[in-house]
Amino acid sequence: MNYNVEELIVKMKLEKIILLILSYILITLSAFGYINISPTTLDKNIGKGAYEEFTLYNNTNIPMRYKIEALALDNKTGEVKNMDAWAEIYPKVVNVKPAENKSFKVYVKAPKGTAEGDYGMFLNIRQVSAPKLEGELKDAVGAGMMVMTNLNMGIYGYVGDKAPKVETTIPVIETRKDGKYLKMDIENKSNRLVRIKIEAGVGKNIFYSIGEVRILKNKIAILDHKIQKLPNNAVVKEIVITDIESKKIIKKVSIN
User: Fold this and answer.
1) In this predicted model, which residue has the larger pLDDT, 92 or 134?
2) DSSP letters of 189-213?
3) Does 9 score more than 80 pLDDT?
4) DSSP label of 163
5) pLDDT tens sequence across 184-240
6) Is 200 within 8 Å of 223 (Cβ atoms)?
7) CA–CA separation, 209 vs 203, rounded Å?
8) CA-CA-CA-CA torsion sign (156, 159, 163, 168)
9) Kindly report the CA angle at 55 between 53 and 61, in degrees rounded to 5?
10) pLDDT over 90 for what percent of the chain?
11) DSSP per-residue string spanning 59-104
């Protein structure tokens, strides 16, 4: 195919524009793909005051700036009441340089006389314009670039029983092609949410992880979970349920 000089110039300009757009998209997607936050839960007693420190990780070469605020849940059922009005966040603006991590703190305390039950809110983490940060190299790739994100992360707390109570069905260990699975229902009998860790015990102080789960008040968790890294010849003797907040074992269920 033959082009005259003007057509060739136009074609080269279009190709350059397309390349710039694709580069922008790739940088943007990279920024989205490598921004992380930990932990992603609270699940503590806000009656006595619940504190958590969250960390934002920036594994890109783009400076990030975030505004953090507490927002009410869009909860039409009323099973979980809002606690955003009681939340304190510091700092409310976090600058995270490339290859850096920064933390912010959240404290929630329910007023005296607050009814027992489950409470929640959205932790809104909104990225705003991130100009070149102080001390950054002049030729840093993407410096001053604006990449927008808006995350509503649901976190929960409770007012109620100090020690959680759960009941279970008879556990069943099922062997499948890719390993062994636990099938069991866990019912929350507390007057507030529980967050528990479930493990398979195969001998004295030898446990294999099955997972973690949050169960709201009066709800049932239906487990069909793989027992992680369990050796093929291992025999599961018991299921151990631990309260994550207190780190205390709240139930052991023997396997017959």
Assistant:
1) 92
2) -SSS-EEEEEEEEEETTEEEEEEEE
3) no
4) S
5) 999 999 999 999 999 999 988 899 999 999 999 999 999 999 999 999 999 999 999
6) no
7) 14
8) negative
9) 165
10) 67
11) -SSS-EEEEEEEE----SS-SEEE-GGGEEEE-SEEEE-TTEEEEE
Q: CB of 196 within 8 A of CB of 241? A: yes
The token duo for 143 is 């410096």
Distance CA 94, CA 105 (A): 11
Say how far residue 214 (Cα) sits from the centre of its chain.
12
- Residues with Cβ within 8 Å of residue 99, at least 6 apart in sequence: 58, 59, 61
The answer, as to whether pTM is greater than 0.90, is no
Gap between the Cα atoms of 162 and 151, Å rounded: 31
Q: How many residues does the chain have?
A: 256
Sort 164 into a burial class: Cβ within 10 Å, 0-12 / 13-18 / 19+: buried
